Structure formats: structure tokens, C-alpha cells
């Protein structure tokens, strides 16, 4: 099964978009696995339209986690910021029951799967101009979902992302996530 914002026809009467404001307790839990100095995502919101969700977040990188400060976002911070906002997007979509492809998930089984079962399988980033790390914004969006079962059940999730600052700094990316052994996959296989 594949669903994409590109190939999904517009319904005659599209449902109104939903917006979910900041959820500080959920964000704190999302960031728990990160070292305190690497908790770059400060707040986030999620919007949903036609079953696909977008998270927007505010970030602050006080200093790089592995080298002297550069005052701008580099590929390591780009990846960490993407991870944090993508994790938030997934679990907030689950909590709000906002994305049909995640309907079998619960927040509890998300926490068990957050680190071992949510994998980046393809990552591409482009830097348009330097982003200052003091304060900047970002966005991660689901663009399609595809179920696969070659070796084990996987929900492939195509995402796009972008980051920008107040001074016209900008970077963009495309990331393919694999949600390995998603809840409900085994039951669906038995029924098939």
C-alpha cells in the first residue's frame, strides 16, 4: 500500500486541517534518550491535512556536540534536529490518532520502538545558505507511506524537511524512514 500527497486526489469537500499545539510533556519524553546538551528541539506543533502530518519546531544549538563552536548548523546538527522533530511528529500523530497509517500504534508501543525500530534508510540534505545555530526553525512532513514485508514487516515513510533562520539561512532534505515491525503488521499478515 502506498499513499502520497502527490497521487492522492483532492476530495470534493476536504476535511478541515487539524492543528495540535505544543505538548511539553510529550516533547520531554521524546528527548529523554538524548544527552541534555543535545536536546536541540525546544517546542513543536503538528498540523494534519488529508491524513498527512507536518511538524514545525523551534531549535537552539548552544554548541556542537563534537567540535568547537562554528556558530552555524552543520550536517550533524541537521541530522539530530531532523531526528528529534521526526520522533515528535510520529508520536504526536499517534497520540492524536491523526494519521491512518499509524492507527495501530499506541503511545506506549511507540516508546518501546523509538530507538531500535525507527531507522533512517536514506538521507539527503542540501544547504542553501548558512543557518545560525542560536535560534532557528524547522519542519518535517510525511509525504507518503508504503508497507513492505520482504524480510519482516516495515512501514516506509518518506519525509521532507527544511530548516531556516531569521537571516535567510536555509537547508532542505529528504529522508526515508523505516518503521520496523510496526504494531498490527503481524495481525494483518495472518488475516491475509
Task: Chart the SSEs and their pairings.
Elements: E1 2-4, E2 18-20, H1 24-31, E3 41-49, E4 52-59, H2 75-95, H3 107-113, E5 118-129, E6 136-148, E7 154-164, E8 170-180, H4 185-191
Antiparallel strand pairs: 1-6, 2-3, 3-4, 4-6, 5-8, 6-7, 7-8
Would you give an account of this structure?
It is a single chain. The chain is of the alpha+beta class and 192 residues long. It has a single domain, classed as Thiol Ester Dehydrase, Chain A. It is built from 4 helices and 8 strands. A hairpin with a 2-residue loop joins strand 3 and strand 4. The longest helix has 21 residues. The protein starts with a strand and ends with a helix. The C terminus is likely disordered.
Short characterization:
Strands 1, 2, 3, 4, 5, 6, 7 and 8 form an 8-stranded antiparallel sheet that branches.
Give the tags.
alpha+beta, globular, 192 residues, disordered C terminus, Thiol Ester Dehydrase, Chain A, single chain
- Tell me the fraction of residues in β-strands, as a range: 35-45%
Which blocks of ≥5 consecutive residues have pLDDT under 50?
Answer: 4-14, 187-192
On the 0 to 100 scale, the average pLDDT is 88
The appropriate CATH architecture is Roll
The total count of strands amounts to 8
Shape: globular
Order of helices and strands: EEHEEHHEEEEH
Helix vs. strand class: alpha+beta
CATH-defined fold name: Thiol Ester Dehydrase, Chain A
CATH class: Alpha Beta
Tell me the span between the first and last alpha carbons.
14 Å
Amino acid at each position: 500500500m502506498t499513499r502520497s500527497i502527490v497521487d492522492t486526489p483532492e476530495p470534493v469537500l476536504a476535511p478541515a486541517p487539524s492543528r495540535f499545539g505544543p505538548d511539553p510533556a510529550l516533547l520531554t519524553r521524546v528527548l529523554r534518550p538524548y544527552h541534555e546538551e543535545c536536546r536541540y528541539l525546544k517546542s513543536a506543533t503538528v498540523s494534519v491535512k488529508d491524513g498527512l502530518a507536518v511538524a514545525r519546531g523551534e531549535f537552539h544549538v548552544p554548541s556542537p556536540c563534537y567540535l568547537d563552536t562554528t556558530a552555524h548548523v552543520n550536517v550533524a546538527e541537521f541530522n539530530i534536529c531532523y531526528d528529534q522533530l521526526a520522533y515528535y511528529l510520529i508520536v504526536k500523530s499517534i497520540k492524536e490518532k491523526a494519521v491512518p497509517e499509524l492507527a495501530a500504534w499506541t503511545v506506549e508501543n511507540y516508546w518501546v520502538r523509538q530507538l531500535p525500530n525507527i531507522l533512517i534508510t536514506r538521507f539527503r540534505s542540501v544547504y542553501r545558505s548558512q543557518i545560525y545555530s542560536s535560534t532557528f526553525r524547522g519542519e518535517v512532513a510525511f509525504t507518503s507511506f508504503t508497507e513492505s514485508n520482504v524480510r519482516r514487516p516495515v512501514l516506509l515513510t518518506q519525509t521532507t524537511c527544511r530548516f531556516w533562520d531569521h537571516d535567510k539561512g536555509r537547508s532542505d532534505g529528504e529522508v526515508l524512514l523505516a518503521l520496523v515491525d510496526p504494531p498490527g503488521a503481524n495481525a494483518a499478515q495472518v488475516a491475509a
